[in-house]
TrEMBL record:
The keyword Cytoplasm applies. This is Dephospho-CoA kinase. It comes from Cupriavidus campinensis. GO terms for biological process: coenzyme A biosynthetic process. It comes from the Bacteria. SUPFAM superfamilies: P-loop containing nucleoside triphosphate hydrolases. HAMAP family: Dephospho_CoA_kinase (MF_00376).
């Protein structure tokens, strides 16, 4: 089965593009959604998180307090390493079990992993057959993040500074979708790649 890693910087439009492929029959595994799953109330990461960071890392409903943890890991590299040491193996295990189910099911022409930190993680390039990058100008990213998240320009830039550069993402890309234009410019690009991936898979 053809397996594709889809990535892009914050505000690039990864989710919109992934949903368009899903509408065409692709199987999707979104590592961000898996991260939310394991840090939800009762999730697999909750016990180890409390053991590492204390009960203050949780919201009253028992989920991980994402805002508090984001602030902590931004200021403390050791905390970041601890958090990733807990969550990354769980996400990887869940990713692999979901992928095995997709392969066994045989209902999809190809599988797309949505991985925001595909370039940064290092191992993904060897795990997928192709890398698809959703690309846009950095100013477009900043404007979208400010509008969507209510962040200041400085906050948007701080997040982008911790991600791979646009050039680094494009350097590993087998395929690129340009998302600088209007939303309607995406459909023909997705259609072209869907046909290409089906041909590969066939």
């Amino acid at each position: 089965m053809l397996e594709i890693g889809l990535t892009g910087g914050i505000g690039s439009g990864k989710t919109r593009v992934a949903d368009m492929f899903a509408a065409r029959g692709a199987a999707l595994i979104d590592t961000d959604l898996l991260a939310h799953e394991i840090t939800a109330p009762g999730g697999a990461a909750i016990g180890p998180l409390v053991a590492a960071f204390g009960p203050g890392c949780l919201r009253p409903d028992g989920a991980m307090d994402r805002d508090a943890m984001r602030a902590l890991v931004f200021s403390d590299p050791t905390a970041k390493a601890t958090l990733e040491g807990i969550t990354h193996p769980l996400i990887r295990s869940l990713t692999e079990s979901r992928a095995a189910a997709v392969r066994a099911g045989g209902q999809h022409p190809y599988l797309i992993y949505v991985v925001p930190l595909l370039v940064e993680s290092g191992s993904w390039r060897a795990r997928v057959g192709r890398v698809l990058v959703v690309d846009c100008q950095e100013e477009t990213q900043i404007a979208r993040v400010m509008a969507r998240n209510g962040f200041t320009r400085a906050q948007a830039l701080a997040i982008m500074a911790r991600q791979a550069t646009r050039a680094a993402r494009l350097a590993v890309a087998d395929d690129v979708i340009d998302n600088d234009g209007p939303p309607e410019a995406l459909a023909p690009q997705v259609a072209r790649l869907d046909a290409k991936y089906r041909q590969h898979a066939g």
